[in-house]
Amino acid sequence: MLILLVESKAGSAINLAECLSSSGHVVDFASGARLGLQLAARCQFDAVVVEAGIPSCFDMVKRLRQELFLQLPILVLGQRGALNDVIAAFEVGADDYLRPPVDPREVHARLAAVSRRRWRQSSGLLFAGALKLDVEINTAWRGESVLPLTHTQLKILRALMESAPAPVRYRELELLLWGGDAPAPTCIRQHIYQLRKVVDAPFDTQLIRTQLTVGYRVQLESTSHLVA
After folding, report:
1. Are residues 117 and 160 part of one domain?
2. Residues 74 and 106 both lie in one domain
3. Do both 141 and 166 map to the same domain?
4. Which domain holds residue 21?
5. What does the pLDDT look like over 213-222, one tens digit per residue?
6. pTM of this structure
7. pLDDT digit string, tens, across residues 157-194
8. Residue finishing a domain among 68, 95, 122
9. How far lies 101's CA from each of 78, 80, 83, in Å?
10. Which residue in 11, 149, 151, 214 has a CA-CA distance of 20 to 30 Å to 82?
11. Could you tell me if 21 and 49 are in contact, meaning their C-beta atoms sit under 8 angstroms apart?
12. Which among 172, 173, 156 is positioned nearest to 208, based on CA atoms?
């Protein structure tokens, strides 16, 4: 895998590059967002790893998605564990956010996981935790169990799985389902309730989670800021 590493600290960049290289990756290095964008425009990278502390980090990620139209995995290495930083990274198009302290071995593992998820999406299948969705035949499974979902429920579940692990905001769901404002303030909550009855109620673990003041997400791992 050819990886673009955008990191302002030379020592950290060298350590991470050595770890990734020992795992069979080839690493190119940029010391800032501007050079990173230039390299991304010229070379066909397989993934981008960017340090959140560089100036214009989130703007760079946004431009990789919206101006260069790159669909490669993008990982952000956080300097802080603040929830606002995590949400901001996902909103501009990052696939994953690693909270500090960052272990190079975890970067390698998460790159591999995101790459597998994106490959499955390109093959018509979405995977998020225990959930699988075949977008060609509009059929979803939890484990080995087929989920009897309505058309609307499938639309919501697909949005949640495509966004995972980031949340889907309330406004995004309104636009998805009605193209504008919901008919009533409780409509989204009612749809999520019905979706949970199919996806979660028959099982021991709840996967459809509420992220307070933000929206809903599929739970891939346990985090303290998620509530039922």
Report:
1. no
2. yes
3. yes
4. 2-122
5. 889 999 874 4
6. 0.54
7. 999 988 877 788 898 899 889 988 888 989 999 999 99
8. 122
9. 8, 9, 15
10. 11
11. no
12. 156
CATH at residue 104: 3.40.50.2300
How far apart are alpha carbons 52 and 32 in whole angstroms?
11
C-alpha–C-alpha distance, residues 69 and 54, integer Å: 22
Strands 145-147 and 168-169: unpaired
Measuring CA to CA, how many Å separate 91 from each of 119, 166, 225? 21, 8, 17
Number of structural domains in the chain = 2
The total of other beta-carbon atoms located within 10 Å of residue 94's CB is 25
99 and 75 together in one domain = yes
Q: How far apart are CA 217 and CA 86, in angstroms?
A: 14
The three-state DSSP-derived secondary structure of 49-94 is EEECCCCCHHHHHHHHHHCCCCCCCEEEECCCCCHHHHHHHHHCCC
Over its C-alpha atoms, the chain yields an Rg (Å, rounded) of 19
